Amino acid sequence: MKKQLLLVAIATTLGGTLMAGSVQAATLDDVKSRGHVQCGVTSGLPGFSQPDENGNWTGIDVDTCRAVAAAVFGSADKVQFTPLTAKERFTALQSGEIDILSRNTTWTLTRDASLGLNFAGTNYYDGQGFLVSKSLGVDNAEQLDGATICIQAGTTTELNLADYFRTKGMKFNPLVFDTSEQTVSGFAAGRCDVLTSDRSQLAALRSKLEDPSSAVILPNIISKEPLGPVVRQGDDQWFNIVKWTLFVQINAEELGVTQANVSDMKSSTNPEIQRLLGTTGDMGEKLGVPADFGFRIIQTVGNYGEMYERNVGPDTPLGLDRGLNALWNNGGIMYAPPVR
Amino acid sequence: MFVFQTLALATVFWFGWTLFHNTLSNMESRGISTGFGFLDETSGFGIIMSLIPYDSTMTYGRTFFVGLLNTLLVSAMGVVAATIIGFVVGVARLSSNWLIAKLALVYIETIRNIPLLLQIFFWYFAVLQTLPSPRQSLDVADMFFLSNRGLYFPTASAEPGFGWVMAALIVGVAAAVFVHRWAKKRQFRTGQLFPALRVGAVLILALPLLMFVLVGRPLVWEMPSLTGFNFTGGASILPELAALWIALSLYTASFIAEIVRSGILAVNRGQTEAASALGLRSSFTLRLVVIPQAMRVIIPPLTSQYLNLVKNSSLATAIAYPDLVSVFMGTTLNQTGQAVEVVAITMAVYLTISLIISGLMNIYNRAVALQER
Fold first, then answer.
1. Number of structural domains chain B divides into
2. CATH number of the domain within which B126 lies
3. Which of A8, A33, B140, B351 is 20 to 30 A from residue A259's alpha carbon, by CA?
């Protein structure tokens, strides 16, 4: 009896001290000592983050993480991916399980202000749309009164959908699944008439259908969905690294620096390119990463435009035009502050 | 001894307090908002099925009750169905008819050895989703419609005068209870049997029916009809609810069947033999001699099965049935980000439900337990 009590006492003391010891450390130091960036992604969304048959992850969200790894380590391979559902993602980031959440996550006030998170920019400007079966004969979302709608749990789309139908005075039946794969199987099985999500996701999910041409994406866009990488609040250094990694990629596209010509560009006389690639100035030092971090990012991942074309652009199965995601001087709204 | 117990208690409290305090201070240092204020905020999302009025302009607190009631609904339906199926199969397992006994055996061994989640998926994706679309739904007399949107059936709403029918029903029930008591007394006195059950059933059914016709059928039926995408009017059972209900009932019933069998086998053979020696028919032997004694063995493990069923109903989230875990711990948690609070509330709810069930079953157990004098 005595022995048991002693054991209990020791166990609880140990437990207590362990928990008390979880004081926040700088993410950059953690990442460096671990040797890789831990990145939270979707469990499988073509174009954004999906593993291939060899377990290699590809997608625009994946490349965003690889670029950060390139900035920190000079190598885009020093990153490991944690597949998360929409429901799990914020808890995983809050608890420190991952360093970056790059999982087509919409930037909203509530998430920014009350979850203890910071949005480090936008790597894809999206909007919510509707996917319907062609046989339904619907060509506008305003004809969807009374429809059953498949939707993923824990997303902003759940809220937008309710707002949209209420303001239009229409009724709907929301069928809420945990993962986007389940929403597709619900839609494919005919359990719901409509699948709603961000339009880029709809394009990706449509490509998963047995016969993609049997479904159409309606023209209506009912929300603004700026998607981007997220980090924990309270670590400004790490926040800056992730933010400026994306900005460097956007600036590189604007300056015409590509994966192919980046080595030649190192000898460029353009002061903006020199600062971007770290041949002059101490931009990297200010962020706490190697001086040539810009060069490493472009060399291993490419500029924003290349990242877009490779994963979701017109030549991919998703076939998405640049649209809003074109550079600001090219009809879009992609705009990055200067590297200076 | 007393010192050690105090010490142990203090350690437990200290442990709990450290846990609580650390969580709070860590969350504060990470800029995560805490507290239960979010329950009064507008939810802004829709829920497919609600037993109380709900729309997206109501609060997160309301979503809690919507989810809770949906959990209680499927649990209650499951407990009733599992008990009935379990008792039937358990008795069938002991049947002297070889085929019936073996069929019951196959049922039990198959169902209880396959993971419940797989069974839920089976019923949802393999069985219910093969139903036709609403436009090709199977209908019975233009009143019942079965499609992959669920089973739609007419609902009745009462008109003035329906109160009389309800009154007749109450009178009928009271009369049936009276007849039952009188029959029992008479049996004690004279030994003669009176078909109290049948007479009671007739009383309960016939009196309200008679009144219903007398006051001019005060009910309006609302038929489901296909408009646009789906049926409107009437009421429906969602495929998600049906799949979850079937899977939970069949799964738990297979365990209950074994419990019932063990209970019946626990009754000494001598009891059955004595009953037949007295000339009791086998149905009477089962009802009056075996089952009452078997219940004492059955009730405690049966309680555990009920608790399992309620907790297993949280698997609803896998097939989009809006139970407490799916609605409150899923969407509400995610939209508010209040993980610690929401998980704590949800855990407290399951604990409370389980304790209430245990309490009720303990009361019943005490009532049927052997009274030793």
1. 2
2. 1.10.3720.10
3. A33
Q: How far is A45 from A48, CA to CA, in rounded Å?
A: 6
User: Is the domain of B111 the same as that of B248?
Assistant: yes
List the domain range (segments joined by +) for residue B266.
60-136+146-151+238-368
Q: Are residues B354 and B282 in the same domain?
A: yes
Q: How far apart are CA B264 and CA B252, in angstroms?
A: 18
CB contacts of A189 in chain B (<8 Å) are 125, 129, 148
The tens digit of pLDDT for each residue in A250-274 reads 999 999 999 999 999 999 999 999 9
Contacts of B7 in chain A (CB under 8 A): 5, 9
Residue type, B6: T
Which residue stretches of chain A are H helix? Answer: 2-20, 27-34, 60-73, 89-94, 109-114, 156-167, 180-188, 199-206, 236-254, 262-265, 271-277, 283-287, 293-300, 304-311
The answer to whether residue B274 is domain-embedded is yes
At position B305, the amino acid (one-letter code) is: Q
Q: Are residues B100 and B246 in the same domain?
A: yes
Residue A146's alpha-carbon distances to A85, A142, A261, B131, B230, in angstroms, are 28, 11, 55, 20, 6
Query: Are B82 and B120 contained in the same domain?
Result: yes
Domains of chain A, start order = 27-125+226-330 (3.40.190.10), 128-223 (3.40.190.10)
**How would you classify the pairing of strands A50-51 and A57-58?**
antiparallel
Residues forming a β-bridge with A118: A231
Tell me the pTM.
Answer: 0.82
The answer to ipTM > 0.90 is no
Contacts of B230 in chain A (CB under 8 A): 146-148, 173, 193
State whether B11 and A87 contact (CB < 8 Å). Answer: no
Local structure of residue B32 (DSSP, 8 states): B
* CB–CB contact B331 A176 (8 Å): yes
The counts of H helices and E strands in chain B are 13, 8
List the single residue in B30, B45, B48 with the smallest CB-CB distance to A173: B48
- Give domain status of residue B202, yes or no: yes
Q: How confident is the model at residue A20 (pLDDT cuts 50, 70, 90)?
A: very low
Tokens 């981007």 appear where? A228
The CA–CA distances, whole Å, from A104 to A185, A228, B185, B305 equal 21, 6, 75, 42
Window 49-88 of A: residues touching B by CB (8 A cutoff) are 86-87
Residue B305 located in a structural domain: yes
Mean pLDDT of chain A: 88
In a domain, B222, yes or no: no
Q: Are residues B119 and B71 in the same domain?
A: yes
